[in-house]
Amino acid sequence: VHQSKLDFFCKLGYGKQDICKVLENLGQEALEDDVLKELIRMGSKPQALESQAQPSPLKLIARGSCSASPGSKWLGEDESDSSDHLRPIVIDGSNVAMSHGNKEVFSCWGIQLAVDWFRERGHKYIKVFVPLWRKEPPRQDSPIADQHILEELERQSILVYTPSRKVKGKRVVCYDDRYIVKVAYEKDGVIVSNDHYRDLQNENPEWKWFIEQRLLMYSFVSNRFMPPDDPLGRHGPTLNNFLSKKPVLPEPKWQPCPYGKKCTYGNKCKFYHPERPHQAQLSVADELRAKIKVSLSLGKEEEQRSH
Known about the structure:
By secondary structure, the chain is of the alpha/beta class.
């Protein structure tokens, strides 16, 4: 009888010394309720409440709480070296330059603005594709502004010229869009362009899916490169998730209660109530079950240690 009562209260988390003292005072035939009252009167507490250092395996989330755990922001990875989780960037240089020049001037400054924006985010792999004939001196039918930027980006191994040559006075230009899509597809990166590449989508079904899912459009607002916060629409991923290999954990969203303040379910209501910020998401019964599970698990650990 002594051993059975000792095991029972050990599973509740009470210490063996306190249990033995109470059994000596009340006798071995004392009822369990009387022993429990005496333990509470002595001020003895379960070890689950005393040892705050041990993390509980089950956490209760407050209703309406949208805070993610600060320890792990990326899925299964550390936040220290976030540059490894960013996707490679492949920029359509001609599209970006002409967009910055209002489709009249090939503005190399627009390419520099786009490259600087991705550099500030921490992207290591950035490539810009421009036709080789843009190296030639500007003409009236194809004006170029800030052409020295192309030389500087080429020196930094960021800009790549696609081949072109002249045959009998006519310029033969390779299709630079194919270079852009092919490199981005092989690197599993992101294409920065306002072009939809419909001809290339019809060529290759794999490229079709890739262009639809990895095309990042943009705008220039007062010499500021601005991609959208929702690249794939309102219901798609955010810009940070779109540019990351490891997406950020989504925040939990609770459905608001249709009855609002007139709800009479109290703690049993499973919907979100904004007027109850400190109300637990679990019901009272679920909270008690969770606490019992914690105390039982701690009691088993103590019993294993004693053996």
